[in-house]
């Protein structure tokens, strides 16, 4: 039993070491030449534009159900008119960044792990090295650029759509006047909340893409290994999103509030 736990700890330490090495190499490659601009633009489309539909649907229905649930609860205290305040604070500070991150982890993280994992088991990664191309510079850096930049953009879109979804429910289901909803929303929106909602997606996007690239590049075992890596990328990425959300929230509370 002791040997089993010792082996597990060694493997975990090795994974962390290799992950840190990958991140360090990616940051070094990001600020040196050559830069694969076409690959970066392609990943902006794959990670950002093609994720727009799932982010729009997630944000809209999250804001709608949040308004519906909170409105019914606020009725007990006669505070139904402040439903906009609750929707805006919840979406912008917490639910928008986290749910967008989880959606990106399921769609983008799994795709990156499957793509890089397939390249690894078919020796395409070794072929790139044989041709004198750095796989990290060619494969990892464009995805990291796209993930870090597009995650905040998608989060802002999810926040806006969520607030609109909350307004639709508040107006037509809860019978809250439109002006009252938006004035309540704006009164509760502070710059500290906006900063927290904007800083989180940069970090979460980095975590999602870096974890997926690490898992994909270390894939072994043929097609079965690709499936295992895809599952691992989604699980580890999702846990990483929730864990980093806690730590970033704790740090920003101490700095901003």
List the helices and strands and how they pair.
Blueprint: H1 2-30, H2 37-48, H3 52-74, H4 83-121, H5 124-130, H6 135-172, H7 178-187, H8 191-217, H9 222-256
Helix pairs in contact: 1-6, 2-6, 3-4, 3-6, 4-6, 4-7, 4-8, 4-9, 6-8, 8-9
Would you mind describing this structure in some detail?
The protein has helices at residues 2-30, 37-48, 52-74, 83-121, 124-130, 135-172, 178-187, 191-217, 222-256. It is mainly α and 257 residues long.
Number of strands: 0
Query: What is the count of helical runs?
Result: 9
Helical residue percent? Answer: over 70%
The class by helix and strand makeup works out as mainly alpha
The geometry reads as: elongated
Strand content: under 5%
Distance from N terminus to C terminus (CA atoms, Å) equals 47 Å
pLDDT < 50 stretches: none
The SSE string, one letter per element, is: HHHHHHHHH
Residue-averaged pLDDT, rounded? Answer: 89
Largest sheet: none
- Rg, Cα atoms, Å: 21 Å
